[in-house]
Design a protein that fits this description.
Layout: E1 2-4, H1 6-12, E2 18-25, E3 31-37, E4 58-63, H2 66-75, E5 79-80, E6 85-86, E7 92-98, E8 104-110
Parallel strand pairs: 4-8
Antiparallel strand pairs: 1-2, 2-3, 5-7, 6-7, 7-8
Length: 112
């Protein structure tokens, strides 16, 4: 699928994003997500890792309480650049944040 618009811009912290993704559900119910940024080729000049980095750009975790986890990230030296977003289909709260080493963590809370 191709994704673009305010939701994805806010989530990844880049403007006018256009990306293509494929999601592969594995037998253990985990998910492998492959992304290609058509709008933002990697430049490699940022202090913090950018969402459009080639290779492994981030790791995602599904959690019970996104606020509790983001507080834990901050309390342990991580960085939150944007508040969480509600996905366009209303099924999840999701945010990108940084661990203490500058790696991107995608935190996802499923909504009921």
């Amino acid at each position: 699928m191709v994704e673009e618009g305010n939701y994805i811009d806010q989530l990844v912290g880049l403007e006018k994003v256009r990306l293509e993704w494929a999601k592969l559900k594995l037998p253990d119910n985990s998910l492998l997500e492959l992304l290609q940024y058509h709008s933002h080729p990697e430049t490699g000049t940022a202090k913090l890792q950018l969402a459009n980095r080639l290779g492994c750009s981030h790791i995602a975790f599904t959690v019970v309480d996104i606020e509790e986890v983001t507080k834990y990230v901050i309390d342990n030296g991580g960085h939150i650049s944007n508040d969480y977003q509600i996905s366009p289909d209303g099924k999840v709260k999701v945010m990108y944040c940084y661990d203490p080493e500058g790696n991107i963590l995608e935190i996802v809370q499923e909504l009921k």
